[in-house]
Amino acid sequence: MTKDRARQLEAALREAGVRITRQRSALLRVLAACDDHPDATELHLRARDAGVAVSLATVYRTLTTLQAQGVIEKLEFRGEPARWEPADQQHHDHMIDVDTGAVIEFTNDRIERLQAEIAAEMGYEIVHHRLELYVRRRGNG
Amino acid sequence: MTKDRARQLEAALREAGVRITRQRSALLRVLAACDDHPDATELHLRARDAGVAVSLATVYRTLTTLQAQGVIEKLEFRGEPARWEPADQQHHDHMIDVDTGAVIEFTNDRIERLQAEIAAEMGYEIVHHRLELYVRRRGNG
DNA sequence: TCAACAGTTGCGATTGGGTCGCAACTGATG
DNA sequence: CATCAGTTGCGACCCAATCGCAACTGTTGA
Questions:
Q1: Phi first, then psi: what are they for B135, rounded to 5°?
Q2: What pTM does this model have?
Q3: A13, B14, B18, B67: least CB-packed within 10 angstroms?
Q4: Tens of pLDDT along B48-89?
């Protein structure tokens, strides 16, 4: 299933004029198989483990390319290297458990609407936003 | 007035066991005089301009110390060096104009409450959060 | 007032994420 | 299958930030 997704993306990218190289194909498969939020180094390792050697520089360049194509999204949490996730899901924000480092996704329409309202009131429109809740399990500590 | 504020802080810090050196005193004065969101390099320059030579390493160390004391807050916007602001103001979030780089502060109680609710629903409490709206003036572009 | 020392500073080296220049290579096209 | 613009790997490089270490200095207690 994720293999299929990777193939779909390849076709769409080729359509958009992006050359599908051995390295990009491998990274697409790695990304399609992700159910987490890996950083560039981690993706580099996973591609290697999957049997395709890709240089780290190429990992970075490919991630930038795929982001420009809207295939993946870049997450920049506080003080960590950037992480990446597939962009084909519905929009969501992130909760980061400060004790375990776990990343939990969530959505809330009311928050989305409020943000748009606030921006509008001040004469702006939202290009992009970032909401991160750094949290701790209740009753810990 | 900002001079007074800097003196107040010195007293409080000394109380907390933080040694007040020439360099820290200068940086406190620089910070108290800020009505913007400078980064470490900028603060380094401002201290120099104010007549007190402080090494960049010390600027970084002092900022870390002051943050630990709750005197200032660290802002990490996308892909920029970290910026800093006094922490004695009321809590607020940030809007960043993507065209001009301007940083606009805002607050919204409803958003604050919603965030707490969402975290609570999932069994968490918020330690810290970050909401950034990357915006563009309406009608531009 | 000052000795003592833990905490702080400046310097230059280092780390770490990420980018770049360039020569060699390779998908896509005709 | 020849062509060539786009892509890759390598190592050098960039930048923000941190660190080790020797020299220095607030603060404290006598």
A1: -130, 170
A2: 0.87
A3: B14
A4: 999 999 999 999 999 999 999 999 999 999 888 999 999 877
Listed as ranges, the nucleotides of chain D within 7 A of a protein C-beta are: 6-12, 15-20, 25-27
In this structure, how many other beta carbons lie within 10 angstroms of the beta carbon of residue B31? Answer: 24
CB contact at 8 A, A64 and A24: no
Give me the total of CB pairs closer than 8 Å, taking one residue from chain A and one from chain B: 105
Class of domain A93-135: alpha beta
Tell me whether the CATH fold assigned to B2-86 matches the one assigned to B93-135: no
What residue segments make up the domains of chain B, in order of their start? 2-86, 93-135
- Of the pLDDT bands very low, low, confident and very high (cuts 50, 70, 90), residue A23 is very high
Contact between residue A115 and residue B106 where contact means Cβ atoms under 8 Å apart:
no
- Determine contact, residues B61/B55, Cβ cutoff 8 Å: no
Greater model confidence, A129 or A101 = A129
Q: For residue A109, which residues of chain B lie inside 8 Å, CB to CB?
A: none
Say which CATH class A2-86 falls into: mainly alpha
